[in-house]
Amino acid sequence: xxxxxxxxxxxxxxxxxxxxxxxxxxxxxxxxxxxxxxxxxxxxxxxxxxxxxxxxxxxxxxxxxxxxxxxxxxxxxxxxxxxxxxxxxxxxxxxxxxxxxxxxxxxxxxxxxxxxxxxxxxxxxxxxxxxxxxxxxxxxxxxxxxxxxxxxxxxxxxxxxxxxxxxxxxxxxxxxxxxxxxxxxxxxxxxxxxxxxxxxxxxxxxxxxxxxxxxxxxxxxxxxxxxxxxxxxxxxxxxxxxxxxxxxxxxxxxxxxxxxxxxxxxxxxxxxxxxxxxxxxxxxxxxxxxxxxxxxxxxxxxxxxxxxxxxxxxxxxxxxxxxxxxxxxxxxxxxxxxxxxxxxxxxxxxxxxxxxxxxxxxxxxxxxxxxxxxxxxxxxxxxxxxxxxxxxxxxxxxxxxxxxxxxxxxxxxxxxxxxxxxxxxxxxxxxxxxxxxxxxxxxxxxxxxxxxxxxxxxxxxxxxxxxxxxxxxxxxxxxxxxxxxxxxxxxxxxxxxxxxxxxxxxxxxxxxxxxxxxxxxxxxxxxxxxxxxxxxxxxxxxxxxxxxxxxxxxx
Length: 555
Description:
The protein is α+β, with helices and mostly antiparallel strands. The chain contains 18 helices and 18 strands.
């Protein structure tokens, strides 16, 4: 099972990866893009050395960028390795998805080929997954996802900072980064070609037809979607022309596309993003509607083009399919915020959800201050007896504006006592399994894991759709249930305990666990840690109380 710190490490890695992927699309030229790819492997993926080997028109690969070592850059930059030597490398070693790992025990046969390299001899590894100085790890970049299409180049990485071979998390991050790098390199080449075509249009009136043909081919045969739209006037934004890639992406014929503008096709939640995107150099990530009613995530990038020197201007939009990247981002984000065993929200996600409902101001504190200062209660028109403005001088208010009256719904805990006063609040049920440790010790971790999975399923089945069931760690779970009174929360705890008690069958045997519940209440003015600590303490009170009851019954 995962350690408590791993979700935080993964979240930090995910943020770094998102940052370097974003930087790939901001490079101004192909050379900048290649160097950004090499730098990103250092800053975002945790390697000390990285090189980008780019396929040349003749098929050989040239070292186009190096990062992490000035010595390695001086030794390798600009040198060429034959395609045959690279094909040999990419067919050797171990396949980690799309990655190629050649351990030092096999890579010695490559020492004398013509591929530029910086590897040096070193001592034998001290433990199985320690990185050896002669280990080699390659991330091929292709023109299509999942190793499809033509080879664009290869990212070579070396010397992980932690001294270990990348695990499943690091391997997936490197694969995703190679895929995004291939897109960035393809787009940089496309932008360079498009810019050259536009410069020719502006410089040479006599070469207009040739330039238009060049533009047409770049437009029609671009691997990503392209569109030309009207700019200005009553028909601003109406699509005049779309290429085959965009029509295929949206499942719509070219003749039908001319009836729409992007504002007609964008997802209702993304219309604001589209409207905020500038015409010249603007970019946005949003969802466009397919013909079958589904939506696809795309990246839009705008440029303004003139038909002639003084003619009308048009909007050229490059539409890139980023559905795969968004799916990977969602998967990575889900893994960082959910328990890998049970699939429930983990400790970090639980605290984030609970913290989002809390604020630092205790409920009623501002209203009490307002009333004590001579609020509306002292005058039917809301004026204060001392002649000051209604909120003047009250701590927490800016000028006359009542700062606390925002969209935040303040949480108030129901009255503490045996009687239910009818008030509702956000109940926090802290659950600790009874007898789980003995099952784990007696039957092993596989049985224990199966028990935790089934308990998670029973807890989830016993709550409402809007409630949260999270695994805090070990055999501790937490339930967040809003809109409950004291009696409601007690009834829920009883129902969940009764749902856990029935035997759980694992590998042909029946095992039982019990559960102790502590009921706490979230209230503004408390932190998430204080709320959980309160529920935890009540759980231990209940556990001790039940233990004493059982001993008296046995006596």
